[in-house]
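Annotators were shown the component list below and the corresponding predicted structure, then asked to write short factual statements about the assembly.
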Amino acid sequence: MREVHIAGAAVHPFGKSRGKTAADLGYDAVTRLLTTTSIGPDLIDVGYCGSSYGGSLLAQRVLQRVGVSGQPVYTVENACASGASALHLAWQAVASGAADCAVAFGTENLSGFGGGALPLTTNDIEIELGLVMPAAYAMRAQRHLHDFGATEADLTMVSIKNRRNGAANPRAHFQAEVSADQVENSRPVADPLRLLHCCPNSDGAAAVLVCSSDLAREIGTPTVRIRASVVRSGRFHTSYRDMTWPDITARTAEAAYEMAGVRPSDLDLVELHDAFSIAELLHAEALGIAARGKAHRAIADGEFDRDGRVAVSPSGGLLSRGHPVGATGVVQVCETYWQLTGQAGRLQVPAASVGLTHVTGGGIYGVDNGACAVHILTSD
Amino acid sequence: MREVHIAGAAVHPFGKSRGKTAADLGYDAVTRLLTTTSIGPDLIDVGYCGSSYGGSLLAQRVLQRVGVSGQPVYTVENACASGASALHLAWQAVASGAADCAVAFGTENLSGFGGGALPLTTNDIEIELGLVMPAAYAMRAQRHLHDFGATEADLTMVSIKNRRNGAANPRAHFQAEVSADQVENSRPVADPLRLLHCCPNSDGAAAVLVCSSDLAREIGTPTVRIRASVVRSGRFHTSYRDMTWPDITARTAEAAYEMAGVRPSDLDLVELHDAFSIAELLHAEALGIAARGKAHRAIADGEFDRDGRVAVSPSGGLLSRGHPVGATGVVQVCETYWQLTGQAGRLQVPAASVGLTHVTGGGIYGVDNGACAVHILTSD
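Structure shown to annotators:
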């Protein structure tokens, strides 16, 4: 397998873009990517688009508008891991030598749904049963608080930290800090989760340029190296499972650490799938950046702050940056690219050289049976 | 790149399955595949599902039910080329050494739409303008008849041939021959196309096992070799284009012939994307198995019959076998696998050793701006 680099990143700011389709948002992000990297569309050998709700031939509808015309392109779906799956396939194409230059992007317009639970399919039995995502995470939260002595105030600290981070991010859906009072008085969604413990449904798009070493040198933009790209699916269980242990995250991360030759203690920053505040506790422990049952302590001690032991979601995370499903896995990599190339501005994590991105999505037949993706990036 | 083989194929018969979801149909096909090949789900390193309308996490919803649990799986969308795109990614994974064994399947339930044009997206401008698929192909037919002297009777011959082939196929949606009178008196859809010049919207699923040479030997089932796997997208045009020349098919086929080291004259059979009778004329010419403007003559002379110069759609094609969008690209490969391993029964093409499969779909911004895939298979 060849070394693979990211040589550019671009984002259509997340938020509410009711007038724009997923194709419009994706077009904006990819156009910015080509402008930033000063490359022409002919250089792109292959394109991968991650989206859950963007419709048929979305990759073509975006890429043909920027002039990627004739090359193979694909739209990939893997729930919240759709964008990261697109990136994984781009990485695989370049690593295997099948391509020298790939564009991976994610795009989504969730405003189109007008609110309510996002359906996995037209007859989604979990939604019919009321097991929507906030309910599933609320159950996990109840169990975590019961088992490990965390409190609702600990969940609130996650929201406060990530909103504080996102307040400095011009690409974030929410760019304002929140107080403990605001979080604790926001309306209940699924006990113990309140509105400000939940990420918003957002619209947005993000794109990265994935290329070989030779081409990266030729393009001449700042680059980072993809040291690991791993996708896994959930394991089917009908029997008891520990709701406080996201097995899918642990397995995916383990494979990524092995591929990268990196330990959790080597990480300077992590962009984590904090779809709900409890998710940061669960996944931080499964990623190995906090001991089991101790993530809330790490947060209380400032260890996950931007200047802490390991910055967790310095860009604001899903809680602040927002969550346009297919775009999230890519924007995490964009933000990490800027961190590792010293371009993160007010978001910059000091001396960042190793970063990890993590998305996990879906929940069919149980609490973590969807898809998960972990990427580990290092400075070049 | 390593040699890649197909070591098994299975199909859920095409037709109307209103009570089954796309996941149910896919589950049936993959279950049959595991039974046929006598392998356990643990052997599968990765899974790719092709579908346009099956919803989120479809690959997981199918594969977890057969016990593929934990491995990376992806759902891929590329309109009518979705299934073939899934196969291409499986081929790439095995060819590059990233996987030894992949399952590629396609599944779709179109009954759920209840009739009418299939939307590409929620605001499909082509459908709003009336440029639905039958209309697009009708315009191409008008031009082809005008330019090359074919007649409506020539279009009818395509339907008669492919329905005759499909009459012997137990997996086909339509298993009855049709007469010229029946075709010519079926109701008009888009002049000159009548109902029996159009493929049906079908439900169905198909699956293949893709593996390395070593694993193929170990499994011990009959195998064929994938000699070429090529996906391309349409080229954007707003100016004049020749509607009788499907550039996307020609470009994709040219790359496939080069990769395989095979010429059109080497082909014993072709499974072609005959979504409409005119499509067989257009694509046969672009695939190089008939001279430009002469495909109708080849059909009239019996050259595309099962025992002719090159059998075209000996399984019945889309016109007879039906067209569950995401499944079509995979079922073509299943049928070709059975042909090249001498298991095609009443459909058998004599001494078949080289086969090509072709799908093309979509039509955004023009007549052939979607996705196209060509696979070339040879006997092992």
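Statements collected:
1. Residues 129-199+228-379 of chain A form a domain with the Peroxisomal Thiolase; Chain A, domain 1 fold (CATH 3.40.47.10).
2. DSSP finds 13 helices and twelve strands in chain A.
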